[in-house]
Design a protein that fits this description.
This protein is of the alpha/beta class. Helices cover about 45% and strands about 20% of the residues. It contains 15 helices and 14 strands. The strands form four sheets. Strands 3-4-14-9-10-13 form a six-stranded mixed beta sheet, sandwiched between helices. A four-stranded parallel beta sheet has the order 7-6-5-8, with helices on both faces. Strands 1-2 form a two-stranded antiparallel ribbon. Helix 2 crosses helix 3 and helix 3 packs across helix 4. The N and C termini lie far apart (about 50 Å). The chain binds pyridoxal-5'-phosphate (PLP).
Length: about 400
């Protein structure tokens, strides 16, 4: 069998928001006066870099020689035996550091270096974006400071250690609920104070313009490769492309390549948590309303007074009260659809893929796998389903062990 090599890279300039950073009614730039100048500087640098042949060549080189791209497309035949579905997994779990986050971290840290910054700050919840950023900084010789809520620091001790081994400084934030949103506030404060030397590296398609655009474009390499690979392997486009949605970066990276193909259903899977009730989930499309959080207008889980609701998910990477503005826009136009998988379905999907294919998916990715599993079990029509396997589950093994032990004891 001829193996056609896939050389697709990230795609730039395909669907820009308007000049103020809006995708329809969503997005924009809701920032304090002190951030206007650094955000403008970043925007100008990004728009120059993405048409600069030198920058693009360097990024391409890093993605292929260091990150390990293209990641494989793998057909999960045992998992779907006896169903009319052909299931293809885009293996972002095989990228360096074990998830898609490295695609964006490489791009943004390379941009910071090009801007002459010697230091970057980043926020992290579960630690995955912090690890990816610390990795890119170690590679490029840039100082890295990661802000993390103190609650998350104790829950994610191993990732904190990984970041420190990579030479990053991890700052534990004791304010508020001591989680991701407090870490974002502190990282922003640092950026304002040190803007001469420092860049802010944001981990998903969130925040003020240009971040939702920039992060989607750095992640678009996922969809560009997957499209070429599925055409190579099946001779056609998929019927459905599926990805889990936390902030929404791995999903935007996948969807980007298929938005102009109306025959391809685009399905984002959110965290259904314990139940679709306030505080028990993170399914913004099931319970969110329009609002502004962390610099952007989008769908937000909030109470009637506009206070941000607490969220819950078995997977830390999906546990966030708002979603990238481009998702809200694509949904409002009817181009994308959103479903949710609850904690139990994700845990079951984790075990299902492990046993049928020998692959441990991240608990985040397990939500997308759960959707595909349900689809394969219920559809009667032949279908080609493409799932983005956003990360590997090694980081979650201890948590899964605890949950399965609890389940045994209560049954
Ligand atoms: C962080 C993370 C996610 C969620 O982030 P998105 O921006 O929605 O992609 C999903 N999967 C993995 C493995 C992650 O680390």
């Amino acid at each position: 069998m001829a193996d056609v090599s896939v050389t697709a890279g990230p795609v730039f300039g395909r669907r820009d928001p308007d000049a103020r950073g809006y995708f329809g009614a969503f997005g924009g730039r809701f920032i304090p006066e002190t951030l206007v100048q650094p955000v403008e500087e970043l925007t100008a640098a990004y728009f120059a870099a993405r048409t600069d042949a030198g920058f693009l060549a360097e990024l391409h080189q890093l993605l292929s020689r260091y990150v390990g791209r293209p990641t494989p497309l793998y057909e999960a035949q045992r998992a779907t035996a006896g169903t009319p579905v052909r299931l293809f997994l885009k293996r972002e779990d095989l990228a360096h550091t074990g998830a898609h986050k490295i695609n964006n971290a490489m791009g943004q840290v390379l941009l910071a270096a090009r801007m002459g910054k010697r230091r970057v700050v980043a926020e992290t919840g579960a630690g995955q974006h912090g690890v990816a950023t610390a990795t890119a900084c170690a590679l490029m010789g840039i100082e890295c400071v990661v802000y993390m809520g103190s609650e998350d620091v104790s829950r994610q001790a191993l990732n904190v250690f990984r970041m420190r081994v990579l030479g990053a400084t991890v700052i534990s934030v004791d304010a508020g609920t001591r989680t991701l949103k407090d870490a974002i506030n502190e990282a922003m404060r640092d950026w304002v104070t040190n803007v001469e030397t420092t860049s802010y590296v944001l981990g998903s398609v969130l925040g003020p313009h240009p971040y939702p655009l920039m992060v989607r474009e750095f992640q678009s390499v996922i969809g560009a490769e997957a499209r070429a690979q599925i055409l190579r392997d099946t001779g056609r486009l998929p019927d459905v492309a599926v990805a889990c949605v936390g902030g929404g970066s791995n999903a935007m990276g996948l969807f980007d390549a298929f938005i102009d193909d109306p025959s391809v259903r685009l399905v984002g899977v959110e965290a259904g948590g314990r139940a679709i009730e306030p505080g028990e989930h993170a399914a913004r499309f099931a319970g969110g309303r329009e609002g502004v959080l962390h610099g952007t207008r989008t769908l937000v889980l909030q109470d009637v007074h506009g206070n941000i609701q607490s969220t819950h998910s078995v997977s830390a990477g999906l546990d966030y009260a708002s979603v990238g503005p481009e998702h809200a826009w694509l949904h409002s136009k009817g181009r994308t659809e959103y479903a949710f998988a609850d904690d139990t379905a994700a845990l079951d999907a984790f075990q299902w893929l492990a046993r049928t294919e020998g692959i441990l998916p991240a608990l985040e990715s397990s939500h997308a796998i759960a959707w595909a599993r349900q689809f394969a079990a219920t559809t009667r029509e032949p279908a080609v389903v493409l799932v983005n396997l956003s990360g590997r589950g090694d980081k979650d093994v201890e948590q899964v062990r605890r949950m399965l032990t609890e389940k045994e004891q209560t049954s």
